[in-house]
Design a protein that fits this description.
The structure holds two protein chains of two kinds. Chain A is an alpha+beta fold. Helices cover about 20% and strands about 35% of the residues of chain A. Chain A has a five-stranded mixed sheet with strand order 1-3-8-9-10, with no helix packed on it. The two termini of chain A are about 25 Å apart. By secondary structure, chain B is mostly helical. Chain B has a two-stranded antiparallel ribbon. The radius of gyration of chain B is 18 Å and the shape is globular. Classes of the chains: A alpha+beta, B mainly alpha. At the A-B interface, helix 2 of A face helix 10, helix 14, helix 16 and helix 17 of B.
């Protein structure tokens, strides 16, 4: 299968930003993970962060600690990358995609909901709030950001929508 | 509905694991064996030998010193562990490039299999349990039935997606409603056909029916059932069923699962899954 020019896969625990108009960021299927997408329409640049877990607090001192696995330690990384290419938080449009939940009435893992809450809470610390969300339910979505246009596309087995 | 006989006939068409794996399986089930016996069988298949050594030196199985021969692997890791590594290497070679019906590429299928195997073992540690025999292999091969029924599901994919989107039905329930059987039942037949240890057959048969497990295998099935849901939730092996899956509340009760215990398992194994996923792309043979 050929990949369109400029398309970059944002894998799990990956943070990417670009101001190149032909860049298209596409997440892997997110499951209960969450894609945080940010776009600054003035400098026409944006980025994507694909997180798996809510909080780094318990893991900071462990050998396997990776900041980009967690909402609270990864969102600052995305903001840092975007600042380097001229984006300003005040102009940023933020979207959250993913946080799926299995068909489990007791939701023993409770990961999607915790990821969503942790991402929202971290964004608030930077005076940011999501302008759009496609979250929850038994869907495993993928997120796409077209840097040239700022279009954010969500795909799952239920179909495709633009946020 | 597609006749069950047709599906079962397709089990015969599936590429087999190399004979070497069945011979090793027989070897480890006996009481008397030696490293030399094991080496003699493995080295009949040079590709398997190369895969075995590559995996044995991976961060997950790896030792601080480099393993350079099958005999050394048996001495350092023990015969059952080396069998598990050999079965992993052999399995990665028989996954077709695309698993139709599930709309899943070989790489994703392999990643899911690896994630379930690693999570099953790590859960044992997290929950302070004793590791059931051949957990890694049973968990790695728990979904082999998908390689058979995928072709039949692809003929019904529109109706399946409609059923899944309608709400509260799990993927395995949809398979059953569509075909009159499911990947778990068919997987048990595949395991038998491949002459794999009995635990692989049991893992396939019961991982979606964890409250009907034959005596002596409850913990193994509870681990695989949990690891399966965890892997899907983390996005390993997403197919058209997406998250239309369920963790049985009785399993959660038996294992005393908590969100933080499951999270610790997933966080601590992230790098190992990434590394093992990259070692083989799957898709070794055309379907």
């Amino acid at each position: 299968m050929s990949v369109p020019m400029g398309e970059e896969t944002v894998t799990k625990a990956d943070v990417r930003a670009s101001a190149a108009p032909d860049t298209i960021f596409v997440s892997e299927p997110l499951g209960a993970g969450l894609a945080v997408v940010m776009y600054d329409s003035v400098c026409k640049a944006g980025g994507m962060f694909s997180l798996l877990f809510p909080s780094a607090r318990e893991y900071r001192r462990t050998p396997e600690f990776r900041p980009a696995l967690f909402a609270d330690s990864g969102i600052p990384l995305l903001l840092g990358l975007l600042a380097e290419i001229g984006c300003e938080p005040a102009r940023m449009r933020v979207a959250l995609i993913g946080a799926g939940t299995p068909l489990d009435p007791s939701d023993t893992l409770c990961l999607g909901r915790r990821n969503l809450l942790a991402a929202r809470r971290t964004l608030w610390r930077y005076n940011l709030a999501p302008a759009a969300e496609a979250v929850g339910g038994p869907a495993s979505r993928t997120a796409t950001l077209e840097v040239g246009t700022g279009r954010i596309i969500v795909r799952s087995r239920a179909g495709e929508s633009v946020l | 509905m597609i006749a069950l006989e047709k599906i079962l006939a397709h089990v015969e068409d599936l590429p087999t694991l190399p004979d070497v794996v069945a011979r090793l399986s027989t070897l480890i089930s006996g009481d008397v064996w030696s490293a030399a016996d094991f080496e003699e069988v493995v080295e009949l298949d040079p590709a398997l030998t190369a895969n075995l050594l590559r995996l044995a030196n991976s961060p997950y199985f790896g030792f601080s010193r480099k393993i350079t021969s099958v005999r050394q692997a048996v001495t350092l890791m023990g015969i059952k562990r080396v069998f598990e590594v050999a079965a992993s290497g052999a399995f990665s070679r028989v996954i077709p490039p695309h698993i139709s019906g599930y709309d899943m590429q070989a790489r994703e299928f392999w990643r899911h299999s690896i994630a379930v195997a690693i999570y099953s073992e790590r859960l044992v540690l997290e929950l302070g349990l004793s590791l059931p025999t051949l957990t890694f292999t049973a968990a790695l091969l728990h979904d082999v039935g998908k390689l058979v029924i995928g072709a039949f599901l692809s003929q019904e994919s529109g109706a399946m997606v409609q059923r899944l989107n309608a709400g509260d039905t799990t993927m395995v329930e949809v398979e059953h409603a569509t075909l009159g059987t499911d990947h778990a039942q068919v997987g048990a037949l595949v395991a038998k056909k491949w002459n794999l240890p009995e635990v692989v057959e049991i893992a396939n048969q019961w991982h979606h029916r964890p409250n009907e497990v034959p005596a002596g295998h409850q913990m193994l099935i509870d681990l695989i059932h949990t690891a399966d849901l965890l892997a899907h939730s983390l996005g390993y092996g997403i197919d058209c069923g997406e998250l239309s899956r369920r963790l049985d509340p009785e399993v959660a009760r038996r294992l005393t699962l908590t969100p933080m215990a499951l999270e610790r398992v997933a966080v601590s194994t992230f790098d190992q899954i990434q590394s093992m996923s990259g070692m083989f792309g799957g898709g070794g043979k055309k379907s």
